[in-house]
Design a protein that fits this description.
The structure is a homodimer. In chain A, α7 links the parallel β4 and β5. With about 270 residues, chain A is an alpha/beta fold. In chain A, α6 packs parallel to α7. In chain A, about 45% of the residues lie in helices and about 20% in strands. Chains A and B meet through α4, α5, α6, α8 and β6 of A and α4, α5, α6, α8 and β6 of B.
């Protein structure tokens, strides 16, 4: 296997930088005429993967919409991930885990180990306990040719309270960007990506040196637009993987309608 | 059912402010002669609950040590939580979840809804996306007489990079403490607790007005000591629920040895 960054770059070159959020939330299940259950979430998610895997570079299943059904939901998520992993699309499991020491190692084992039941190509991780606390997941990514996306500047307005707070050498988000940039440079592996919302007129941080993948949620439903991405991200736009969720899923379960909408988004 | 804060206070008055970390990490399973598997983690965890539930106020299972086995691990965690919920001890599921909008609602449904397979008395939540992003979990706690513990000042040194960064009206951690204090006052429910590590000589934040439960990990293995808590927490020590993990579990699986160690810790 080759590195996460290289695999992602190859598939994005072929298909364009679009990632579909696999978000089987209760209101979507109702709108699609599916039961609000592990089985309904599984049907919705596997349908999306089945219909769109040839068109899109990546899928981002949201763990919360499976965790709410307990072990039955997690068993469904295992099958969704297995489906994605059988295509050439990348799986990015959105779990936003963050902890310390042996606990962070256990999260890395859960999602980034090769034989884990919930193995994904990449996961999202959360740095409230400091960027340094995330090293066990980054190490696991290096060892297993997987990726991590560290939450940096999230798409919601409340995020600024934490992310734009200042240290002596810049804001929290800038410190995270700088640490990720440096590790990506040193490792030549570029396993570390960032999550940066596409909803901000001004990001309040500098991504111009960042050399990994940038996962950008908030396109569509939350107000971000694909065509605004170059203005927001500047040269870093070449690293952007844009996430569409409700803006796509709202077209309903019809395969042709979903494919047509994706074609329009990829442009 | 009465509020989380009242239920916790009653059990702490009776048994003392001790919470056992249910951390079946791989090295512990090996030391106890158990397989590193969902079954081994379940045996370890249920043994701890069975042996100690009459002595201690609360158990804090760590989700990561179950997630690493996928759906089989989560099914084990369901049974561990069910065991705790059949005793008068409080269950605090350590999941450190944090997200926005409908995703945060799904996490709240997963762990704080009354009929959820993974329902706990309280969960830990992470505010990297801003304290305001956590409101769906706080609302669920109010509605269902559950509790939440917001990560504030964590026990690890790297946490300072985020938690002590400054906004105009104080540090990130102080902003979180102040927001939690205000909501606890307004609701008269005191469902919002905080996670504050017991490893710091100086906390770098002011807890003197805080009126909810304070969960304090880092006692024992990470260097914190029960007898130092009054000096660290001042008057707020009356709200402290001290978490012991490896410092207790290292005595091995023998029931009498575990009970003796707990008696010493409660003092």
């Amino acid at each position: 296997m080759t590195t996460y960054f290289k695999r992602l770059r190859a598939v994005v070159l072929e298909k364009g930088p679009l990632c579909v959020a696999v978000d089987p939330h209760p209101s979507l299940l109702k709108a699609w005429g599916l039961p609000v259950s592990a089985s309904g979430a599984e049907k919705c998610a596997r349908h999306l993967v089945n219909v769109l895997s040839e068109q899109v570079a990546a899928f981002k299943p949201q763990s919360a919409f499976f965790e709410m059904y307990g072990s039955a939901g997690i068993a469904a998520l295992e099958r969704v991930l297995a489906d994605i992993n059988q295509t050439d699309a990348i799986s990015i499991l959105d779990v936003k885990r963050g902890d310390i020491g042996s606990t962070m190692e256990a999260y890395a084992a859960a999602y980034l180990a090769k034989d884990a039941p919930l193995a994904a190509d990449a996961i999202t991780i959360s740095p409230y306990l400091g960027f340094g606390s995330l090293l066990p997941a980054i190490e696991a990514a290096y060892q297993n040719d997987r990726g991590v996306y560290v939450l940096a500047r999230t798409s919601n307005p409340e995020g600024a309270d934490v992310q734009l707070a200042l240290n002596q050498d810049g804001s929290v988000v800038q410190n995270i960007i700088d640490a990720a940039t440096e590790m990506n440079r040193d490792s030549a592996n570029r396993a570390i990506g960032l999550v940066v919302g596409g909803t901000h007129r001004s990001l309040g941080c500098d991504l111009s040196d960042f050399n990994g993948s940038i996962l950008v949620p908030g396109i569509g439903f939350q107000g971000g637009k694909m065509e605004d991405l170059p203005a927001i991200f500047g040269d870093a736009v070449e690293h952007v993987l844009a996430v569409v969720g409700r803006g796509l899923l709202s077209v309903g379960p019809d395969a042709q309608a979903l494919r047509t909408k994706v074609s329009k988004l990829i442009g």
